[in-house]
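Standup, Tuesday
Yesterday: got the pipeline producing structure tokens again.
Today: sanity-check two examples.
Blockers: none.

Example 1:
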Amino acid sequence: MVQILTAAVLVTSGIAAGVLFTHAVGVWPAMQAMTPERYVAAHKLLGRAYDPMMPIIVGSSAVLDIILAILSEPGLARTLFIASAVCLAGVGAVSQTRNVPINRRVKSLDPQAIPADWEDPRGLWGKWNLVRTTFAVLALIGNAAAAVSAF
């Protein structure tokens, strides 16, 4: 059972880290180069798929880490599973308190009627995305190290 859960946590934390990393190095730079109108339209399109899926994936991965920490013998693997769960909680906390509020503001805009006094949130959003990407990559590294040390 522990081996199956370990495989599952590697998949879920790998997906989370991969999506956030890809967004940080590919999607986000492209969105920064767009006009405000194109950025708002693209942001709305991208959010449709990411918004419901990423919290499920990150949350599932954190729960798996907690279960694995409980099932693991005291030692390095348990410590790494706990550290990975904490990092995934960091992903969720940054997402919900920083990125999601910005997403809501951007989604409320009409791409064809950007207010003249609009404060472009891309710099701030990008900064917080890098923070949560770092947490996600650290969680994946921790889970991979825990998997190797557990077997």
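Example 2:
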Amino acid sequence: MTYANAFGITTAGMILMSFESPLIKMTHVSAQIFTFYFGLCMFISMNITLLLKYKRTIFALYKTQFLPILASGLCIALSNLFFILAIKHTSVASAVFILSTGPLISALIAFVFFKQKTPLRTFIAIFFVFIGLGIILFHDGALGNMKGNLYAFGCVFAFVSTLSILERNKEANRLACFGTGALMVSCFSFLTTSIVVPDAYSLTLIVGMGAFLTPLSRALIGIGTKILSSVEIALLTIIEPVLAPFWVWLLLGEAPHLNTLFGGAIIVLTLLIHSLKTHQAYQKS
């Protein structure tokens, strides 16, 4: 596969992922009901793929990689649950802008707790990201949307933990990890709410997202990671916070507040500049 193909495939995956937020918003069910059916669909879809590829050795795969699959699955489950709760309890723009800070928050955690060497440009970027977050949170706090924003931060920390586990367990099968996380998040939802059958409209959206859109987007991004560097992947992740609010405005008429757009613009621009600077440093090394 060429670099151009990998770049195009990963970009397509990111664009598909940007549709997840509006689809969640468009359903008429609670976050827990959505999560239950979404997790089941994603679990079935990913394990059918694994079964077709590994056939009888699929059980051996789970057995030999049990601990990393279980640990990453738990973090994936929490990140999915918090993501859906965030979308249901605050504006999509606020949620995705907060979620986009994941790489920098990960760098901050690595510096504080693991004494990992961090370049000055990352600290400068973190400073401006927190300015953007402050503007968003100030406005959302006045509207009573802080609960949704806290869920978004929970998603960030769970996602960062997932990346940390997967980075230390490169042999762990990614489909098995995400499939396990999907099953676990369904179990969480089952234990915390009364499960009912959604209306046909909502169920169609949930099945479409859980069985096709999300697995396909993750598969495309996973293909790209075999060729592209982590810096280039981080640069492409900016696509989601840019497109998701646009899709929600186009499909649902939910126009982001000026404060949210201003704070989000600071975050996205900061991430873009930081990624470009990191890419330049990566090429020189």
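Quick observation on example 2: The chain has a mean pLDDT of 87. The first helix runs from residue 3 to 17.
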